[in-house]
Amino acid sequence: MIHIAEAVRDTLWPPRLGLRARIFTFKNLLKFWKDYHEYTRLTKSGPLPEYKHIYPCLGDNTGETAIEISYYYQDAWAFEKIVTKHPPCHLDVGSHHKFVSLLSKVVPTTMVDLRPLPVKLDTLKFKEGTIVNMPYENESMPSVSSLCVVEHIGLGRYGDPIDPLGTERAVNELKRIVQPGGDLYISVPLDDANRIYFNAHRAFTEEYLNQLFAPFDICERRYIFGNCYGDKLQPGFGTGCYHLRRPL
Hints:
With 248 residues, the chain is an alpha/beta fold. It contains six helices and ten strands, in the order αααβαβββαβββαβββ.
């Protein structure tokens, strides 16, 4: 019964949970008990779940799959682009670990991140490093990605040093290591003006990004605004996905 008491305390009554969220959670808890009693009623033979092993998972019973839409679209976009190009090797800097792990199964991939991974994968190489000072020579990499990363640099969110020019330094460092004719895949928040959502992330106008990405060519642009993914820039907050290429 201790597990149940803890579940009620942690999921039903956290101090900052609003009234509507409490009601939603309480309904899910009632459904949990209804399902539990139905399970025990239908069990004619075999073991019943013990109270000490009860593990309420409240809130997973949703009408649709819960996802982070920007990551869903941007990771699929970059994965397809990189796999189609199939470079001899690929370097990712700070993108989501699931994206990098899957990519490493089809393209030789090295991941650079400020925080080491707590697990190992035989297909994925890892280098601990910072996006503003990477351990690679100038113009040395044929293919580089960094998805939803540069907007965080310098805000301290992930333990990095405070730096008002963190994004600019990160983009310049990414561009530095891409070889002539090489590809760079970046995603970044967009907004109607350059804004700092301290200490979560920054957002930028596309006009500013065009200046920041120069002299690289922009081979492709894709946009995520709400649930919409396409090639049309819209007003308001969203995410831009950019395939860049260093001129020969």
